[in-house]
Amino acid sequence: MKQRAAVRAALRKKRKALVSTPERVKLPYLRARRLHLLMSPEDLSAKSEVSKSTIARIERGKTVGILTAVKLARALNTSVRALESEPPDEWFVEYDRPAPPR
Known about the structure:
CATH superfamily: lambda repressor-like DNA-binding domains
Distance between the termini: 48 Å
Structural class: mainly alpha
Number of helices: 6
Radius of gyration: 17 Å
Number of strands: 2
Strand order of the largest sheet: 1-2
CATH architecture: Orthogonal Bundle
Helix content: 40-55%
Shape: elongated
Largest sheet: 2 strands, antiparallel
CATH class: Mainly Alpha
């Protein structure tokens, strides 16, 4: 039994090294995408099952866990990568600037 546990632990460690996903991400374009879709923070909260305070914190530039980021991206019909790093094109307007870097 101890040998199996050691093998499982070694496999988990190897898998984690191969698939490196960030545990926390910033979503600087969350607010811009939300406003483009004419959604209030309350609407996004209800659709994504993420609290309004968490949404407000993310829009102020704080980091978020990857699972929460996926929930928000699905609610906004986009990808985490688009909310994280791709500047919006047709829906970007002057007041939709991303949160300033900290």
